[in-house]
Amino acid sequence: MTRIALEPYFLHQDQVQSLLGEHRTESARARAARRSDPEAALPYVLAAEFAQALSSLGIGELARRVLERDLRAGQVVGTELQFEFQRDRDRDAPGFKPASFTAVLDAGEPMRVTGTFNAARIASSSASGSLAGNRRVYLIGTVTNLSAEQVELRPVFIGIRSFVDDDLPAVASAPRARVYPSDIGQFSGIDFASPFAEAEGEAVLRVPEDTVKRAFAELLGEPYVPKDWGGERSDLYTSRVFARGRQLSAAWLFKGPGFPRAMDVKALGKNGDQIDRLFTEPAELLVLQHCHQIKSSVVGMMDAYAHDARHPRFYMIIDGADTGRILRSLGLLPAAPARPPL
To answer: Which top-level group of life is the source organism from (predicted)?
Structure first.
């Protein structure tokens, strides 16, 4: 079983305890009291209790809330972004060390994520260096101000989010949320590091989406290939994927030559709702395939949905180049059309 672990750089104890409630708070305080230094241990024990409670508290990912148009003031959300931190030392006072942060969330349209916090509440003295300059961290905060271009958050937690698989040996690392095509057992005979020519990329654009879907289904050993229809949540559902040594259920979304260019969030339906529908499938692995480049904003959306504390999952991206390598291995990549003589 995979669970979330939180390591705090900053933790607002009052707000965390309010979110946890009396019973969970007392449990955490009792565990901290048994440590050699209860005061120093309390932020870390509270963070551990907070991590266990995330799914029941309904704390969703900021990117998902934005994409679903379900973001409002007062909500508590989480987001993992590249933040720029700044300290305003001129305003320092006893017990008060103001700091600010800013980042950009790309959910189809860029949105600035901003806020301030009291750096005196850092979890330990060594954490101050982790909240300076540009850092990629996980932040949980309350929405205090909101517009179409900007969201302001009051931080509850800033630190590291990791995923721990209790079924793995203690020395093993937790599995990444992102699965790569080379992780799939049925793709083991494909060289994903092989060169991919521009002409092959053009050839991928000439392969119909249904042909690609059926080719993938055959390679996976999935005999049941549904016909396309307007209300579908995915194009292919299978329980026959083998990844990282285990069998997984997977839902696949295929985007063919009907969109023959780099994919952004806007290419995935109104407000990117095709991603939202894909993640409503009861699958452990969600797969997005496209016949061309897939932009980082789309990868970020898939990553945000996969890391949602309410229902964490795995995801995979297969762009035009990897699609071409798979089709080439099956002998399904069309030959380049002959050039007319000069």
So the answer is: Bacteria
